[in-house]
Amino acid sequence: MTNELDVVVVGGGTGGYVAAIRGAQLGLRVAVVESSDLGGTCLHRGCIPSKALLRTAEVLSTAREADAYGVEARDVRLNLKRAMKRKGSIVETLHRGVTHLMKKHNIEVIRGYGRIMGPSIFSPSAGAVRVTLENGDELTLTPRSTIIATGSSPRALPGLPFDGETILSSDDVLKMEKVPSSILIVGGGAIGVEWASMFQDFGTRVTVVEAMPSLLFQEDEEIGREMTRLFKKRGIAVLTDATLDVSSVARVASGIEVDVVQGERRERVSAEVVLVAVGRSPNVENIGLEATRIQVERGAIVVDSHLRTAEPNIYAIGDVIGGLQLAHVASHEGIHAMETIAGIQNSPIQYDQVARCTYSRPEVASVGISEKVARAAGIMSKWASFPLKQTGRRFFLENRTVLSASSQMLTPAICLVCT
Ligand code: FAD
Fold first, then answer.
1. Can you give the residue range of the structural domain that contains 122?
2. Nearest atom, ligand 1, residue 154 CA
3. Do 146 and 288 belong together in one domain?
């Protein structure tokens, strides 16, 4: 089968495996090349394990407040080992599900590391894939089309490389064996905010350092301000408009000390560990792009609105093309690219109604463009905000706070802090 393929997908994460399933549904012969575990970041190091632990944090915090609800819960405490076991078994169940879906759709999964090859005498256009198998053997696949879905990796701060012990990435914290007494989280985006919320519930002293004026800067300003206020109320130290002076890092017996710079102000912050959550770098290195005409800009593969790279038979989807690095965006792009290859899709992909959620406590959800973007584009006709505190529903959910919405001609944008 490997010689008669219509499409090879390099990377079996959310974007890659969903693309492959769509291709199989459309009658295409598809193979997925995956160097690690099918399911990618979302299933093994992202959405799923982090949400499993967030649920533990939520149960813990609710149980601590049980008395207020007329429930007697004594001796409430975290058992990290059991929480990690639960997280692992959720991941394993879903992993089995994805593996089953591949089999059911007759998709060949090749365990190995794929590199795109340039034009050759055997394959006059770029797009063949050379796979280094786990045993070191090499395999060359020559499909009609190729989809690059190699995802992204945690970005380190310059001068502060991850060491897996004190300077941690989001991959590292998912493997922790003990809850740190204190943590400095660099980055107040979705990943930093989720972990800050979780660690605070676990009893860790949390400091968040964010370079922008508020947390969750991609959301409406009001939402970011509200999150900052609520985090501070929970006892999380939030330093906005602030950066880490990595040259001031000192390793001490209790962990690390570093200066945080806020304008003219300089504050020495100490923590047992540092979680760096300053974004993710698309995996564009060492995948053979140099042999092709594929462009990389600001670290991400450049595609057109049909997800085509500069090589007509090579597409790219998901985190590797930058933009909104979300699982449902990756899978939507995978479906779009595969339908384009199959010839049943010729519309450009649209991003103006993407839903986003930060699963912290409180949760934040939004869809569409932000107030700021709508105003800047001159297309906002109305802005409304409603405190959820004023609804009876708030008594059945924890601390609901604010609902704000802007409506404009094309796409309504709604932001919600469900506190
Ligand atoms: P990936 O899932 O990264 O998959 C890429 C795959 O390609 C990997 O399996 C990798 O092993 C493989 N690969 C790479 N190079 C090669 C190669 N050369 N050959 C073969 N295989 C290769 N998104 C949400 O929507 N909701 C969330 O709640 C959410 N939470 C997150 C929490 C965390 C902590 C993190 C880190 C991310 C979270 N995300 C969330 C983002 C989401 O995980 C990503 O957007 C999504 O996984 C991107 O899918 P992808 O297919 O592009 O890449």
1. 7-51+81-151+283-351
2. 36
3. yes
Residues 237 and 337 in one domain: no
Output the CA 246–ligand 1 centroid distance in Å.
Answer: 28
Please write the tens of the pLDDT for every residue from 283-341: 999 999 999 999 999 999 999 999 999 998 999 999 999 999 999 999 999 999 999 99
Work out how many domains the chain is built from and give that number: 3
40 C-alpha to ligand 1 centroid (Å): 5
**23 token code pair:** 């291709």
In a domain, 68, yes or no: no
Residues 212 and 319 in one domain: no
Residues of the chain with pLDDT under 70: 1-3, 122, 393-419
**How far does residue 95's CA lie from ligand 1's centre (Å)?**
14
- Distance, in Å, from the CA atom of 62 to the CA atom of 74, rounded to the nearest integer, reads 12
pLDDT score of 412: 39
ipTM score here? 0.99
DSSP letters, 184-246, are: EEE--SHHHHHHHHHHHHHT-EEEEE-SSSSSSTTS-HHHHHHHHHHHHHTT-EEE-S-EEEE
Best residue among 18, 41, 194, 335 to mutate for probing ligand 1, ranked by most atoms within 8 Å of CB: 41
Asked if 260 and 266 count as a contact pair (C-beta separation under 8 A), the reply is: yes
- The reply to whether 13 and 125 lie within a common domain is yes
